[in-house]
Amino acid sequence: MVAQAQETVFFQSKNVLITNTRMNLGGTTYATANVTSVSTLESKPGRKFEIISALIGLLVLAETFFGGIFFIALAVLVFMMKKSKFIVRLSTSANEKDALWSLDKNFIYSVVEAINEAIIFRG
Hints:
Keywords: Membrane, Transmembrane, Transmembrane helix
Number of strands: 7
Radius of gyration: 22 Å
Transmembrane segments: 51-79
Order of helices and strands: EEEEEHHEEH
Strand content: 25-35%
Largest sheet: 4 strands, antiparallel
């Protein structure tokens, strides 16, 4: 009879499970033994729309006050609504893979910390 090693859970959330043997990140499972490192990335949103809208607002402001204010307010609103996306990047001996993303920075940092713990635990 072969004794099975017990699986140690480092992190568990709605769609994430990190153990010493596997990582399930958003529905995709990776073997912890294949991951050599993990990192976080921040993907900032593009701001072209907001800049163009604000410039149009400034130009229209010379003709009609309320039209200009509308475009400027639209630019400010869209600017405030766009958020940075935080990404978990896994590295293996073969390649790098963006495995999970979220708008919640603390969630992504918790996942990365758990993956680091699992890699260290694995030895």
